[in-house]
Amino acid sequence: MSKRQVLMILGIWVMVFMFLGVTPFWLKIFAVITGAIIVGITVTLRQEVEIHHVPQQQKPTPVPSAVSENNPQ
Q1: Is 62 part of a structural domain of the chain?
Q2: Which residues constitute the domain of residue 39?
Q3: What is the dihedral of CA 27, 32, 35, 36, to 10 degrees?
């Protein structure tokens, strides 16, 4: 399962578990644990993106030739 899928499932979990009728004490514990997992996954995802990010190469600037159209040699 990819990290994006895990984040999606955890997002759905966060939306649903508030309506499960759990006591506020356990609700806070679940929220903290889920939040910590989400933060951990996003940190590792950001590191992976930075490692695999290939910067775009700049186009070479055209160099004027020594022979121009007006002055053929």
Answers
A1: no
A2: 23-52
A3: -150
pLDDT tens, N- to C-terminus, the chain (73 residues): 888 888 899 989 888 988 888 899 999 999 899 999 999 998 888 777 777 665 666 666 666 666 655 655 5
45 near 3, Cβ under 8 Å?
yes
Q: Alpha-carbon torsion 28, 33, 34, 36, what sign?
A: positive
**Residue 63 lies inside a defined structural domain of this protein:** no
Q: What is the pTM of this model?
A: 0.58
